């Protein structure tokens, strides 16, 4: 069984979880979120995550952070040392939704890579010319 964790700067993680609950309903209730706010340290919640990973070695932990190279993801780098841990950066609603809706007990590396590619496809600059052309297609 997989455990989904979202950790971000500010309240972004809570916002993503809230959006997932709106889209996917009760499936999203079990997602854990961690928010780095002023006066808090990311290392505090990383210790909690590590303890949970150690206590549940047969459970896959999909941990998604917001920005590669920033303090939250950097603090979570140690999680990749656990065989049951997967660390992803650049979390967005599309990626989190794909991870949530995946029905498998453990998500394969290949599936995770495909989810990342699919999530990246949704990051676009939309211009007025594109909108006009797309409307003409219908």
The count of helical stretches stands at 6
- Residues in β-strands, percent: 15-25%
| Class per helix and strand makeup | alpha/beta
Distance between the termini: 43 Å
Q: How does the major sheet shape up?
A: 4 strands, parallel
CATH evolutionary superfamily: Phosphotransferase system, mannose-type IIA component
- List the strand order in the largest sheet: 2-1-3-4
GO molecular function: transferase activity
Keywords: Transferase
GO cellular component, one term: membrane
InterPro entries: Bacterial_PTS_sugar_comp, PTS_EIIA_man-typ, PTS_EIIA_man-typ_sf
Task: Summarize the structure in words.
This protein is an alpha/beta fold and 138 residues long. The chain has helices at 12-24, 42-55, 71-75, 93-101, 109-121, 128-136, and strands at 2-9, 32-36, 60-65, 85-88. The chain has six helices and four strands; from the N terminus they run βαβαβαβααα. It holds the Pfam family EIIA-man. Keywords: Transferase. One of its GO terms (cellular component) is membrane.
Question: Could you provide a short overview of the structure?
Answer:
The chain has 138 residues and is α/β, with parallel strands linked by helices. It has 6 helices and 4 strands, in the order βαβαβαβααα. Strands 2-1-3-4 form a 4-stranded parallel beta sheet, sandwiched between helices.
